[in-house]
Design a protein that fits this description.
Structural class: alpha/beta
Order of helices and strands: HHHHEEEEEEEEEEEEEEEH
Radius of gyration: 16 Å
Distance between the termini: 47 Å
Shape: globular
Largest sheet: 6 strands, mixed
Number of helices: 5
Length: about 190
């Protein structure tokens, strides 16, 4: 499959993911034209392409322009999976060594940041299917297990197992209950600080 065809399929997949996760989404055209989270993601793919080919200054400059335009800062070194969606987006920061899996959703004000100045892996790994609520901070070279939910304004500094719910400052993990809906967790008063 050609690179252009893969890119177009990826764009269609991104739009479908946004439509699935945002109840306010009305049409694919609206999503493609008006969703800054998607614009930041699409730009990130270009800057990441340059970053891994060692065109680092241009990649960083491009990521800064994207930040100015969207309010979303994704370092070009970050690795982002498929069907990633940032809802609202303003204030999202994703650090250089962050790794984000497939089907991950972030709300506004989320930070995937570092806690140390040494080189190497400094930012979190977010596994597939994780949802992170507004204002949450996930800090350091930790791993958030697949299908976990991080509540709004939680500060996570430790690894979390698969299917966890993380809330509080510092966040504490508990197992997700069978059938517990992600959207319900993110909007329940018990999970907002």
């Amino acid at each position: 499959m050609s690179r252009v065809r893969r890119a177009l399929l990826s764009v269609r997949e991104d739009i479908a993911a946004a439509k699935l996760r945002d109840p306010a989404a009305r049409s694919g055209l609206e999503i493609a034209l008006l969703y800054p989270g998607l614009h930041a993601l699409w730009a990130h793919r270009v800057w990441h392409f340059l970053w891994v080919r060692r065109v680092r200054f241009l990649a960083r400059a491009g990521s800064q322009i994207t930040r100015w335009l969207t309010g979303i800062e994704i370092h070009p070194g970050a690795t982002i999976g498929r069907r990633f969606f940032i809802d609202h987006g303003m204030g999202v920061v994703i650090g250089e060594t962050a790794e984000v899996g497939d089907d991950v959703m972030l709300y506004h004000g989320v930070t995937l940041g570092g806690r140390q100045r040494e080189g190497g892996k400094r930012h979190p790994t977010i596994e597939d299917g994780v949802a992170i609520g507004a204002g949450a901070k996930v800090l350091g070279p930790i791993t958030i297990g697949a299908h976990s939910v991080v509540g709004a304004n939680a500060v996570v500094t430790r690894d979390a197992p698969v299917d966890s719910v993380l809330v509080g400052v510092p966040a504490k993990a508990r197992p997700r209950r069978v059938g517990e809906d992600t959207r319900a967790i993110l909007t329940a008063p018990d999970y907002v600080i």
